[in-house]
Amino acid sequence: MICGACGANQLSHDVRDFPYLYKGKKIVIASLEADYCAACGEVILDAHGASRLSALIREFQQRVDNGEKKSLDM
C-alpha cells in the first residue's frame, strides 16, 4: 500500500503502542492496530481504531485539564 502522506510504498499493518503528548503530559495508548509508514511515520487507522484513539485522547486531555495527579496511563 502506498502512503498518502509521503508516497512511499512502505505501509505495514501492525499493532503498536502509540505515544501521545499533551501539555507536557505523556501517555502511551497500548496496542493500536493500524497501517504504519516506515518512511514518514504516518499512521492510518480504520474506523474502529480512530474511534478508540479519539475517545482515549479526549479522556486523557480532560484528565490533564482537570489537574488529575493520579496515574494517567491508558
Automatic annotation (TrEMBL):
Protein name: YgiT-type zinc finger protein
Stretches of the chain forming a coiled coil according to its record: none
Gene3D superfamilies: 3.10.20.860
Any matching Pfam family: MqsA_antitoxin
InterPro entries according to UniProt: MqsA/HigA-2, Znf_MqsA-type
Domain of life of the organism encoding this protein: Bacteria
